[in-house]
Amino acid sequence: MDDDHDDDDDHDDHDDHDDHDDHEPGAPGARVPSVMVSFDIDGTMEFGDPAGPVTIDLVRTAKGLGYVVGCASDRPLSSQRRLWSEAAVDMDFIGGKHDLHVQRDLWTCQRMVHIGDTDVDRHYALLAGFEFVHVDELPPVGTSGWIF
Ligand SMILES: [Mg+2]
Fold first, then answer.
1. Fewer CB atoms < 10 Å away: N or C end of the chain?
2. Ligand 1 centre distance from Cα of residue 73 (Å)
3. Could you count the other beta carbons within 10 Å of the beta carbon of residue 96?
4. What is the pTM of this model?
C-alpha cells in the first residue's frame, strides 16, 4: 500500500542551488591530510626487535595516500631516525609514545590511528585521542572503514 510516496511537502525549486562555486578541486587549501597514522617499531614493524607484522610497504602506502605518517616508539629518537632512514621512508614525525598528543595538536586530521603491540601503546594512543589498533588485529587492506 504505497499510495503516497512522492513527498511533495519538501519540494523546493532548484533554480539557485549553486551560488558558491569557489570550491575548486585541487586548490592548495583543499589538500589537508585527513588521516594521521603512527607506527610503533618493536613488535610492530618488520624491522623491529622483535620483528612485527607491519611492512615498510604499508607505511609507504600511507605516505602515498597523503596521510600524515609518523612513529611513536620508546626507542631513543636517534635510533628511530636511523631505522626509518634505513627503511628509506620520510616520516612526518618521530617521537615518544607519550608525545602523541603533541602530534595531535600540530596537525589537523579528522582521524588519528596508532598501530602498536602493547598496552603502553594503547594507553598513550587513547590518552591522546587516537584510535588504537593492535598489530595482531590489523584489518585486511580494503576493509570497509579501515584507513588502508
Ligand atoms: Mg612495541
1. N
2. 7
3. 16
4. 0.78
